[in-house]
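ok so dumb question maybe but i'm new to this and my supervisor (M.) told me to 'just get the structure for DUF8094 domain-containing protein' and walked off. so i did the thing. is this what she meant?? sequence i used:
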Amino acid sequence: MFRLFPALLLLVAGCGAAHQAVATEQPASPVLSNSAAAEVVTAYDRGNNELNAALNATGLAGIETEPLRTSSDAWLRITKTRGQTVPLITSGDPRFIVPSGAQWFVASSNRVRGGVPSPRPVYTVFTKSDGGKWLAAYSLTPLDDAPPPAVNAASAATAVTDFADLLVQPESVGKAVLDHYTAGLAGQDDFARSAALDDQLANGYAVGLDVLRSKGRTLQRSLEPASHPVYAVRTTDGGVLAFTAATVVDVIKGASVTFDASSNEAALPGGQRTANQFRVTRLQTYLTYIPTKSSGSQAKVLAFTDTPVSVR
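this is what came out, is it supposed to look like this??
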C-alpha cells in the first residue's frame, strides 16, 4: 500500500515557479526470501528423517516447537511401542506465504512419505526461536482449497494479531469446533460444512461414541484450559487463515475398559491396560479460514489433526 506525503513546495528565487517533490513509502519486505525459506524446509526434512529413523524424541527440540513437537513426540513413542519404522519424508514443489514484520512463515509443499505423495499440499508453519533457529510449529493438510493470502507489491503477506473484526476468535476455535460436533450445531453456528470438520472429525466422534456405547462404556469429552500459539495471515477478502490448537480430554468409563491392541491409545502408555476409567489427553490442531464479521460468510475448518498425547 502506498501513502502519499504532503507536497513540499520550494520557491525558487527569481522565477516564481513552484517545484513539487513527492515521496512514497516502500512496501514492507518479507521476513526472508523464498530461497532462504526453501533452505529452512530442506533442513527440517533432513533433521526430521534423522530423528524418525532413530525414533529419537529427545532431539525434536532442535527442529520443532509447540504444538507440533508434542504431537511428534507422541507419534514417535507410539511407533516405538509398535516396533515400527517411519518412512522417509521429503517435500517437493514448496511454495511460501511469508509475512513482513513477523518471525514466522508458512510453507506449502507436496509431501512424499515412503514414496507415496500426499494427495494435497501440506501446510507447515515455521517460527524463529529466540536463538535464531527456524522450528516447525504446525503441519496440516487442507482437504479444501485455502483462500489466497493478501500480499503487497514486495510479495509480503500480512501477519494478523488483532482479531477484533473476525467472525470467530482464533483462540476460541477449539471450543467452537468442540461445540459444533458434540452439541450437533451443524447448520446453526458460524461454521460452513467442510470435509475436515463434518465428514471426518464430527463423524469420527459419533462413530466412536456408538462403539463405546455398544460395549457398555461412556465417553465425556471436555476442553482443557491450555493455551497454544496462534498464527494468522490475512486473505485477499479480508479474512484470515488461522493455525490454532486445543487440548481436549476424554474420560472413558466402564466396568472393564481395554483399548484395542492396534489403537494409538493402547500403544501410547507402552501396551494394553485394563481399568474402569481412563483419561486420554488429546492435542488437536486446526487450519481454519475465518472471515470478517461484516462479510456475511462463514468460517471453514480446512484441516485438523488429532493426537493422543497421554493416557492414564
